[in-house]
Amino acid sequence: MEGLGVLAEMGELTRRGEAFALATVVWRQSPSSSQPGSRAIITAAGDLHGWIGGACAEPVVIREAQQVMADGRARLLLLGTPEQFGAAVPDGMTVIPISCQSEGALEVYIEPVLPVPHLVIVGDSPMTRTLASLAGALGWRADHVRGPDFTAGSADERSMVVVATQGHDDEDVLERAVAARPAYLSLVGSRKRGATVLGYLADRGVPRDELDRVRVPAGLDLGSTTHQEIAVAILAELVKLRASGALAPRPAGAARQDAIDPVCGMTVAPDGRPVRYEGTDYYFCCAGCRQAFEQDPGAYPKRETRC
Fold this sequence. Notes:
Radius of gyration: 25 Å
CATH superfamily of the largest domain: NAD(P)-binding Rossmann-like Domain
Number of domains: 3
């Protein structure tokens, strides 16, 4: 995938509301296989689509891209050996040593592309309409649905769900909301009402660890009384939690761990056939490192094999 294919994939990921990072080569030192303007998309799962360079650059870019998505800040990388750059590295750039046999080098700009926050408001009242309007003013995607129309498919693990059904089938709506496993779930109501609803769902077999994630009462405690103030309190809580990183989606499975080449210390993808030595599998950036290790594995210092 390259050129327009990368742009098309960006559009598809954006449409699906998935986070990703865009890596762009802005400078190269021959004989690197990349060219200025080469681009690749890195997904949250660590999949790379496009072309950013060969085996030396790819695992490093994937690792750094995942960090960019986690902290939401772009970064500019210089990939090569420190001796290639010396004291000429401008402020704000990060030098990542890579031991590429071609002696090439790259400058790569990685920027996060994060999905627009998705807020699902369940219920029909002046407060829910105010909350939807305020969320829209922030540029969020706000879906305002009636209780009977809400299903587990109305939200996903990146969504924020506020249930404000005011006693109209609260239990059934909240059970469907719990099944969606959203990043945030709250019930608008008093603590006493919340305890009753959650206790009923626990008796119906809803897992306690999922119920413990339901926030009730919803929103920051601002001493609010009007429906406008309640809407502001809920939105203020959501903004605070998002800014702290507390609403990151829960991982569906274990993330891929990169390997460390025992010869040169490079970060490499754990692909291909490993060399097993003293009960540990080792992976390599190139055939030269693999051959050197096979000839004398004891000559190399013990390193962490994963990162």
